[in-house]
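Dear support,

Our group has been running a series of protein-ligand predictions, and this particular one with pyridoxal-5'-phosphate is the one our PI (initials K.S.) wants archived with full inputs and outputs. We had some confusion internally about which version of the output was final, so please treat the block below as the authoritative record. The input we submitted was:
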Amino acid sequence: MTNYNFGAGPALLPEPVITQAKIDILEWNNTKQSILEIGHRSKEIEELFSKVEKDLREVLVIPSTYRILFLPGGASFQFAMIPINLIGAYDVIDCFDTGFWSQRAIAEARKVARVNIVASSSPTNYASIPEPSEWRCSENAAYCHYTSNETIGGIEFDKAPELTNGTPLVADMSSNILSTPLDVSAFGLIYASAQKNLGIAGLSIVIIREDLLARAPDNLPDISTFRTHAKHLSLYNTPPIVCVYVTGLILGWIKSQGGLQAMHNSRIKKSKKLYDMIDSSEFYSNRIDKRYRSKMNIPFRLPNESLEKLFLENASAQGLLNLQGHRSMGGVRASLYNAMPEQGVDALISFMTEFQKKYA
Ligand SMILES: *Cc1c(COP(=O)(O)O)cnc(C)c1O
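Confirmed final output from the archive:
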C-alpha cells in the first residue's frame, strides 16, 4: 500500500528528495561529514547557499534588483518582522482580510501602525473575495499585504492584486509559492515558510526589493532586520542549514519536472479532478466561490460530523493520511502541494467514491 500525506504542513516531500537526503545524512558531498553536522562557516555551505539562491532565482525568475533571504522561523515570524522593517516614516498599512492567516498578519501589523482593511471576505463568511471596484486602498500606505492562498479556508487569489497607487505589494505565499509562474517585479516583498511547498519547517524565504531594505529604523535589534541578513548573505548567525539544503533538493526536483509551468499544469489537473468529484456528489461539499477556490488546499464537508470522523479514520487506515481539517474549522482538507502525485489524488477520489456508496 502506498501512503499519501495530504497534511497542510509540514507537508509531503518528493520521493527523490527523501532518497537523496538519506544519503547525505550519512555523508554529504564528499565532506566526510553528515549534512546534519557541517559548519556554516565552511566553503561548502557558502557554496550551497549561493547555489540554492541561484536556483530559486532561476526557477521563479527573480530580477537582480531583489534580494533573497533564508531566515529562521516560519511565516508567523515574518508577520512580526515585516511591519517593523517596512513601516519607515509611514503611518498606515493596507491589508486584505481573506481568512485565518491574513488575520494573523493583520494582528501583528496593528501593533506597529494603523491598519486599513482594503477588502474583506467577511461579508461572504470567507467564501469569496470582493471585486477590485470595492477595494479601498490608502493613498500613502507603507505597503499592502495579502495572503495569496488561505491554507485553512481554501481560498486563493486568482491573480495578484493590481495596485495602481505604487504601494509596494507584500504577499504571504506560504502555501502556493512555486506552484505557478509569477511576475516577481509586481511585488515589494514575497515571503513563505518552507514546510508547505518548499521544504521543511524552520525556514522562511523572503524575496525583497532592494530599496525596501533601507526602511528599517537603526534602533531595531540587528537580528530582526532584513538589512542585517542581506548584508551577511543569510549567514549572520547559525542558519537553519538543513532546511536550506532540503529547499535546494526541492528546487532541483522542480527543475527536473519542467519548472513552474509543469507545477502549474499539475495543480490545475489535480485540483480539477477533486473539485469535479466533490461537485458531482450530493454527499461532499465545498462552499468557496468557484473563481477563488484554492488549487492547493481543498477543504470539504460530509453530511455530518460523525460521518466525517468515520471518513478520516477509514482514509487513514487506507494510507490516505492527515486529511483532517484545521482545528479551527473541522471537516476534511486535502492539501495538493507540488509533491503530491496525481496517483495520490486518484486514490483519494476512489476512496471517496467507495465511502459515499457505502454511507450516503
Ligand atoms: C502555514 C502558514 C503560515 C504559518 O507558518 P508557520 O511556519 O507555522 O509560522 C502563515 N501563512 C500561511 C499562508 C500558511 O499557510
